[in-house]
Amino acid sequence: MVLLALLTTLNSASPCNHPKFSFISSWLAPLAEACCRLLRLGGCGQVTEQVLGCQGFWGSIAFPIALACLGAVLLSMVLKACWELRHAMSSERGSSAAQQAGDALSALKAAAPSEYPPASHAWTQLEVDKGAAQVLYCTGCHKPIGSPTFYHSASACAACGAVAHDSCLRGLGDSCRPLCLAKATHWWQVPGAVLQTADKGTPSASLPCHLCQQGCGLAPVTPEPTWQCGFCAAAVHVQCWCNVHGAAAPGVAGALRSRGADAQADESLSDSCASSLASTDTEDEEWASPMRRRTRELRRRQRRIAERDMHPLDACRPSGPASGAVLLPWSVEAAPGHDGADPGSDAESLPDRGRGWWRPRRRPKPRPLRREGLRVSAARLPAGCRPVLAFVNTKSGAQAGTAFRQRLLRSLHPLQVVQLPREDPVVALRPLLGLPGLRVLVIGGDGTVSWVLSAIDDATAAATGGEAVGDDEAPPAPPVGIIPLGTGNDLARVLGWGAGAAGWLDHSALGLLEAVEHAAPVHVDRWRLRGERREGEGGSGGKGNRPAKDGEGDDTLDKTMTNYLGIGTDAGVALGFHRMREGYPNLFGSQLGNKLLYTWLGAQHMLSIPGSDLSDLVQVEADGKPLELPAGIQGLMLLNINSFMGGVDLWATSSEAGLEQTLQPQRLWDGKLELAAVFGIWHLGKLQIGLDSAIRLCQCSELSITLTKSMPMQVDGEASQQPAGTFTVSRQGQVPMLQRVHPALASVVKAVTDVLDDAREDEGISRKQHAALSSAMATALQDKLDPNN
Ligand SMILES: [Zn+2]
Ligand SMILES: [Zn+2]
Ligand SMILES: [Zn+2]
Ligand SMILES: [Zn+2]
């Protein structure tokens, strides 16, 4: 429309007579005339009448509407161009701010090199939200990444949150968060643009500078050189930092070249900051027990030692929910000469740039962490720290493990995240075992849980040098929580962690850590299976993702059981499932797929193999007395927990077969096993959908089972063909697990657990008393512990 008006004006104005411009009027004139005609025609509706055949009301307004639409499109294009220009200008300012902050950080690191090399980055593909107003800045070249119109493929570090162009990764090397630090100081990073808030979940465009309280940020809000602490998320203007550190920061101040920083110590700012910092250093002691106060006093003294020779404003004290679960690098010590990485590892490097742009660049893989040389010092742990050690099976059932691992890496120290089956859990446990308040989180299926439980046994035995020592001399076994990723997840169900990972996938790392923090420790019975196999017959099986241990597969049976043991029908199906999983690992991607396959195998089993009557083939002795098995049973189950093969509560729903014994309700810590039976696969199938009930046989604390012929047997879902022979089942002891509690009770449970833990640490009570008190609390709260009630 603007153009048309201009042309009309030009046409009506007297034509320019200058010979140089006469050609303009010569070709403008017919164009303008055509436009005038169009306008005139449009105004009176003749165009639409002539061209489209419309008449009347629509004929008169159709053309102006079309013109208005065209105008709107043109206007939006102009506005978009202006916005992009503004965006480009602000990202340019942000880019120079990031460059200055990066230069200043390099100067700082050159002036005070770290005693220990940092971990290597864990690069993953960066998904840029192209519609977002935020611009991310590359850690390498400080240029913007993924502006709305211009996009390079880029990566983000799952551990420290740094972002970089894929082409800049080579130059970055190992500069991730440090594994060890001598002092509890802030560890500065140049933020990729968005600043991380303390919970690392919701990034924010601007945070207050912890020195001047003015907004910090790179783009597009306040493009000033900014640093952010990788541990407590405090943000600071580099200029403010230089002012406070005065003469100690000439190189850093020099790097802030364009701002003309004159590094003068701002004493008043320094003093006011120091006093405000001191005033926040109060801890509510009124409610604390005397024992707890003493422990805190001791730890505070140790902390003061760690903070010596350090500017008071540099002290880093992460706070916020679940911050106690995080191990900080100033609690970790390295053996001399240790560089954190495995020297024998095949650290992959990027191919040379010269190989050509058409080849996709591979991200450098992180060097595997060498845990042996690192040690966590209990004396340097901050007050209230209850570190969590997370074992993530990235190959477990639903394969959601990788997502959980990345989430946890972002918040926890690299020592606290163990990737199974790649890493050895015993080695991973060693640096942390025995720390006060240590808790373990297993993200995986039932097989992974029993693997980690055995690893805890092995690590505890190794810590005492393999010698039998008193209960109170060995490091205490940490309680174990479970995020279920497997198919059955029976133990996780019983302990209130849910039937699958679905409910946990939308939790942040903090949510997971908080769930662990608020769970109640209970002591669950474990049982030992020992027996002789007859000569010439060997077993087969073992869960796919767990390497076979020494002693497995030879002639003696020696296993530990936590959940249940099945002989006969159910074990036959489980064995078929296990063999299929070995043969076709790709089929087992989803939990639902696994269940369908399991059902199908069950149906196949039911139609093809007539089950054998176990009452003739198996002899059972319970607590020294022979037990008569009902005729016609095809499956025998020995239960420790009240969930069998994916959530069936066999004991509570089962009927009694005329027993003399009065049966107790099933408990996880009562030292008793429950023996139940089914009449074949059809009966088992009806049990699973709640149409029938199993037969209760007895409740006992020791058992001897004789198989007169080889038959399938499963222990905690791990199936194998068990040769003929006799084996005994006896209690091995108890293992601490974590039970989820109703949110309303969580704080009470946490306070009681804290008091019990402190009492044990200060040797007010023995390990045994501690276990007994925890179990007493769990029994008292039994009905209220279930988070779903
Ligand atoms: Zn990193
Ligand atoms: Zn770059
Ligand atoms: Zn900090
Ligand atoms: Zn500031």
Automatic annotation (TrEMBL):
Biased composition (Low complexity): 270-280
Main location: membrane
Class of enzymatic activity (EC top level): transferase
Comp. bias regions, Basic residues: 291-303, 356-368
Pfam families: DAGK_acc, DAGK_cat
Signal peptide region: 1-15
Protein name: Diacylglycerol kinase
Organism of provenance: Auxenochlorella protothecoides
